[in-house]
Amino acid sequence: MTLKDKVALVTGAAQGIGFAISEEFAKQGANVVLADYNDQVKATAAKLAAKSTGEVIGVVMNITDNASIQAGLDQTMTQFGRLDYVVNNAGGGVLKPFAELTDADFDKTVNLDLRGTFQCMRAELKLFLKQGFGSIVNAGALGSIYNPGGMGAYNAAKNGIMGMTQAAAIDYADQNIRVNCVAPGLTKTPLNAGGFLEKILPTVPMKRAETADEVAKVYVFVASQATFMTGQTILNDGGVSVGLK
Fold first, then answer.
1. How would you list the strands of the sheet with 56-60, edge to edge?
2. What residues in the chain have per-residue pLDDT under 50?
3. pTM for the full model?
4. What are the residue numbers of the active site?
């Protein structure tokens, strides 16, 4: 399946999983908008554009700011006149044992992951309702279901994202709008540097981490080809969620 003439927007796209998702959309022929709070995203998009058949642009977008989100969507529509797929990948947060979390830690994590995703979804859904179609894929996390500890605030946010995914999917299922969620497993990214992966890998039945390219293919499939799927959270986890080995 080619995605020629389709338009995809990916948040948190300057590096890691977000960039891999953007690259996979581009490989399949889509026009791609890389969105990130880091101005570096413009240079990253320019490099991807140089090897892509579709058009690729970088947009500075802060997912905690409604005006910034709307500006990014407006720029996308001005450039392309449509938006087919959105992957709300941007996120992060504070990982600490539960009793050590401060109010500021909790607020920072929930505001970025949960509220940020909510604000993006709300703006995206309004756009999709106007144009009559669209597909959203949110970023969940295996760690919010099967976690190694230290993820109290992160779990609260990511489980909230799964709940919002279900709610929005039902609200707009009869209006040609799909909303799903992908929960990556242990993935090799710059954010996971520092020995964390090596510590957890023995618990993964497949005995390895997934690559960003592997999970990117799942995001793009769910966004573009799983046309009768909505309200679901897909675990791409090397078997962690089904057993120990």
1. 56-60, 31-36, 7-11, 85-88, 134-139, 177-184, 233-236
2. none
3. 0.94
4. 154
